[in-house]
Design a protein that fits this description.
Length: about 140
């Protein structure tokens, strides 16, 4: 135990060596590396800001051109007639296709439902017809 007390006393009375004091006094507040990093960060921020401004002005020009082209197309009578014809044709043909698909899909589903009808007590026939009709409606 006396040996441990002597070690504690010795550690408490230790002073920093000359080399540690010298190393601590040589450290400047701002090193040249720190100044370089700050300068590069500022240059990068400035460059990014300039690129952002250029992108914003480019987007504004592109948006203005797109708007002008859209207005030009919307005011053209030929385009208006074409759009109205496509909308009307889609409604008529789409409805006919959906009705046909629903009818044929229902018939096909009911026919396929006949096969497992003995195991499902006949419930597979209307279930197959409903699935077939729904699929035909969507696909038609």
């Amino acid at each position: 135990w006396p040996h441990k007390a002597a070690t504690i006393h010795t550690r408490a009375s230790m002073k920093p060596t000359r080399s540690v004091e010298k190393n601590l006094s040589d450290v400047p507040d701002e090193t040249s590396a720190t100044k370089k990093i700050i300068a590069h960060a500022e240059a990068a921020r400035q460059k990014a800001s300039e690129k952002l401004e250029a992108a914003k002005s480019g987007m504004a020009i592109t948006a203005r051109l797109a708007k002008d082209k859209a207005v030009e197309l919307a005011s053209d009578k030929t385009v208006q007639v074409t759009v109205a014809s496509v909308a009307g044709g889609s409604a008529v043909v789409g409805t006919g296709g959906a009705a046909t698909g629903s009818l044929l899909g229902g018939v096909a589903g009911a026919a396929i439902g006949v096969v497992p009808a003995i195991f499902t007590f006949g419930l597979s026939i209307p279930a197959g017809a409903a699935l077939g009709a729904g699929s035909g409606l969507v696909l038609g």
